[in-house]
Amino acid sequence: MSASICFEQSYGEVDGDSASSSEIYAILSSLADIPIRQDIAVTGSVNQKGEIQPIGGVNLKIEGFYDVCRAHGLTGTQGVIIPALNVPDLMLRKDVIQSVQEKKFHIYSVNAIDEGISILTGLETGLMDETGSYPVSTINHLVNEKLKELAKNYKEEKTDESEEKKGK
To answer: Which of 16, 88, 95, 98 is spaced 20 to 30 A from 143 at the CA atom?
Structure first.
């Protein structure tokens, strides 16, 4: 397995540090084999400790996704995940505020990747216990099990390759 996360500033259409948390959510979802909700937009920069950092243009990002949702019909489940550190910067249009108050649209503020992945999957992340294990049916347990399986398969593959070389 190989995974790369971009922490650098980039100003393309999709990439950049504001997309770094989304990249991690996608990797965790894939490893855990748990789908991510598609009715929640995500923005947020992440540091190497998994802490969500503030981003620029938070109001425009929220309002842009809200406008798309409204155009397709508000379902009451749609929303956005933003960095908690951006909450003091919010200056949203009245229609967005009203939809949030009426629970037709949601704004989730998060401080860490663990919070965001829980919102996106509906599962708890789970804390490691003293034995180094995570509670069953948590994101961290599922990811850990997948990583163990990948490591085991890799080790078996290397052993098979080594045995093939010896047999030649």
So the answer is: 16
